[in-house]
Amino acid sequence: MTFIKTVSSRLCRQFRKVVWNRRKYGTEIRNIGIMAHIDAGKTTTTERMLFYSGYIKKMGDIDSGNTVMDYLPSEIERGITVQSAAISFHWNEAQINLIDTPGHVDFTIEVERSLRVLDGAVAIFDASRGVEAQSRTVWMQADNHNIPRLAFINKMDKTEASFTNSVDSLKRRLKANTLILQLPVIQDCQYIGVVDLITMERMEWDMNVVNPNQHGRKYNKHKLTRTDEGWGNMVAARTSIIEQLSDIYDEVALLWLDGENAGNAEKFPTVELKKWIRQGTLDQTIVPVLCGSSFKNIGIQPLLDAVVDYLPRPEQIQHSFLQYYNDTLSAMAFKVLHDKRLGSIIFVRVYSGHLRSGGTIYNVNKQSEEKIGRLMSVYADEYKDTKQIEAGNIAVISGFQNTVTGDTLVESKEAFEAAVNKANVLHRQQDDGNHSVVLAAVKIPEPVFFCSVEVYSPTQEKALRHALDVLCREDPSVRATIDDGGSIMLSGMGELHMEIISERIKTEFKVDAYFGPIQVAYRECPSVQATHKAAYKRTILDSNYEIEIGIQISPSAEAGTVTDPSQVLKPLYNPELCHSAALGVVQAFQQGNLLGYPVMSATVQLLAVRAKRGCPPGLVTATAIKCTREALDKAACDLLEPVMNIEITTRGENLLQNILGDLAKRQAKVHNIESSDNEGNMKIVAEAPVSEMKGYASRLRSSTSGNADLSLQISGYQVVSEERKHHLKNLMRNFG
Ligand SMILES: Nc1nc2c(ncn2[C@@H]2O[C@H](COP(=O)(O)OP(=O)(O)OP(=O)(O)O)[C@@H](O)[C@H]2O)c(=O)[nH]1
């Protein structure tokens, strides 16, 4: 009895200490993302993480379509992840907020958005393929955002798997300074575990567990000694780790070369090793490499340990804007989702201060207050109400009306103004550095595909508008516009992107709609500067008006379209007249004179707007449309088409001729062909019009029997040659 009392009071004391520490220091948080090439195993790995951390009782399986992270019907059907979803679970006293990122090229905006709120990432590679084209794209994006990374070589169970080749490809193709922390354990040609070179333990997973709810949960740990087979290799690998770190950090070199255990890798203190691996990961001087097989449930627990041990805590990442907010709230909306029960919900990353339920916040970008409906923490597609979310953590909010992805949220208008004042003072004192008080917004590229949408019955119109409204708020790369004829045009970043949006409109929002064929979004742009000034006589309800408008259109290097009247000018002497005219310019720019495509890469200046007092604003807008069209005629517009960067890596040289022949037929310009390694693999870098690349991924897969990797990325717009313009005009005529 006394014993029970002693134990329970000790436990109480310990519990109080944990609670007290948490209050003082906050929970240890890791905001991480998983990034990789499509099919490398992100979803499978995430499911295993949730299973071993105790959040799900039964493991989901991507091939059966019952995973927690991929929950949209369209994701389940295709077996791919199309939307970032955040999830939070605990591992070793730390709370891991995991943001799943899609691997498909059409969703790079999603990847970009999640990368902005991550403090660290796990990059997953297929051990039989090493670095694939898409993983390079995502790696570069992570480089741009300075995100510390761990590499996980997955699928080690495959017969073609090679740990050494995969690590080599990381070094070669990503220029990563890899630090190998584990070696694979192979027995009877089967991958069964890893050797941890830091703790010098061998971990083996029992492959004969019958109960599916125990799969991979238990594994045998064996402390290695000199008598173990391969001891010499393992000590050599540990020595390599220490030497690599010594080259970067003098403190490690001192420890390694001095003292009683100098040069003895076996005796080098594990605590020091872990400390410097962490430092190197945060400094991004090294990339720790681990391996496993998510599908066979091997290596997940050590991967989670490494996430906690080596990836940064939120407070270790410096954000320059934070200096202006001290302990008051600053946060960023990084995702808007439509939830069936809750309506629009916003995923928010808190950088400083607290988010409290029931309060209001100030949206800096929208310059308006938003009232927090419910404040929740996240668990896949389930959310739990909470009273407060502290700095460094991720929250889900319902009830916001105007907030969209990328908006900065702060405590109040006063707090924002105080931050601006502080920044101004600092700006005066030191003219260098970044003085922005908001987080930089994600740059949304111009959409490259579009289609028309029509409802079968007018009763469905309201529902369609609601669906489009929600989808555009969720994903800023989706746009819905109304053309001159009153038809709704939906545009997006890729064929798959468009297909998924239309499917969601039909299934999730239950709108019975017809979607026209998906077409490439061409653009028009001025080739020369043009100035046009004219006076127009107008009669409306027996009143005569003379409206004079002057406009200048110039070609610009910026790729965007003019969508906001305030982009058009600084107000002349009559701001209202000017605003009406600017609206007309924006409207005229939505349909160019050449083929009716939006005009982009142009800057516009209103030079004059004059009209008699009392002239209706609508009349000024209509006149400005006419004047802009006339000015566009003078600006000799070119037709632009979207182009893609193509990167193809072939296994074997013999496929090269076929691929090049096919690319030539698709009007591609080949920029470079080079040998990508010593095994006869070739890399082709090219650029081609998006319209010519329809269905190319599956064509390449079948023509090479899967022996080529493809990465496609929209690279921008190019001027269409006269010959090709003629060809496209004919096509469009036939199409119409
Ligand atoms: N052999 C083997 N197959 C695996 C392993 N991990 C995942 N897979 C399989 O690889 C395929 C892709 O796995 P996912 O987890 O969906 O990959 P993903 O990276 O999430 O894919 P996207 O969401 O489409 O980007 C599935 O068929 C998995 O069963 C592994 O360790 N070994």
From TrEMBL:
<dbReference type="Pfam" id="PF00679">
    <property type="entry name" value="EFG_C"/>
</dbReference>
<dbReference type="Pfam" id="PF22042">
    <property type="entry name" value="EF-G_D2"/>
</dbReference>
<keyword id="KW-0547">Nucleotide-binding</keyword>
<dbReference type="GO" id="GO:0032543">
    <property type="term" value="P:mitochondrial translation"/>
</dbReference>
<dbReference type="GO" id="GO:0005759">
    <property type="term" value="C:mitochondrial matrix"/>
</dbReference>
<dbReference type="GO" id="GO:0003924">
    <property type="term" value="F:GTPase activity"/>
</dbReference>
<dbReference type="InterPro" id="IPR035649">
    <property type="entry name" value="EFG_V"/>
</dbReference>
<dbReference type="InterPro" id="IPR027417">
    <property type="entry name" value="P-loop_NTPase"/>
</dbReference>
<keyword id="KW-0496">Mitochondrion</keyword>
<dbReference type="Pfam" id="PF00009">
    <property type="entry name" value="GTP_EFTU"/>
</dbReference>
<dbReference type="InterPro" id="IPR041095">
    <property type="entry name" value="EFG_II"/>
</dbReference>
<keyword id="KW-0342">GTP-binding</keyword>
<keyword id="KW-0648">Protein biosynthesis</keyword>
<protein>
    <recommendedName>
        <fullName>Tr-type G domain-containing protein</fullName>
    </recommendedName>
</protein>
<feature type="domain" description="Tr-type G">
    <location>
        <begin position="27"/>
        <end position="315"/>
    </location>
</feature>
<dbReference type="GO" id="GO:0005525">
    <property type="term" value="F:GTP binding"/>
</dbReference>
<dbReference type="InterPro" id="IPR020568">
    <property type="entry name" value="Ribosomal_Su5_D2-typ_SF"/>
</dbReference>
<dbReference type="InterPro" id="IPR000795">
    <property type="entry name" value="T_Tr_GTP-bd_dom"/>
</dbReference>
<dbReference type="InterPro" id="IPR009022">
    <property type="entry name" value="EFG_III"/>
</dbReference>
<dbReference type="InterPro" id="IPR035647">
    <property type="entry name" value="EFG_III/V"/>
</dbReference>
<dbReference type="Pfam" id="PF14492">
    <property type="entry name" value="EFG_III"/>
</dbReference>
<dbReference type="InterPro" id="IPR053905">
    <property type="entry name" value="EF-G-like_DII"/>
</dbReference>
<dbReference type="GO" id="GO:0032790">
    <property type="term" value="P:ribosome disassembly"/>
</dbReference>
<dbReference type="InterPro" id="IPR000640">
    <property type="entry name" value="EFG_V-like"/>
</dbReference>
<dbReference type="InterPro" id="IPR009000">
    <property type="entry name" value="Transl_B-barrel_sf"/>
</dbReference>
<dbReference type="InterPro" id="IPR014721">
    <property type="entry name" value="Ribsml_uS5_D2-typ_fold_subgr"/>
</dbReference>
<dbReference type="InterPro" id="IPR005225">
    <property type="entry name" value="Small_GTP-bd"/>
</dbReference>
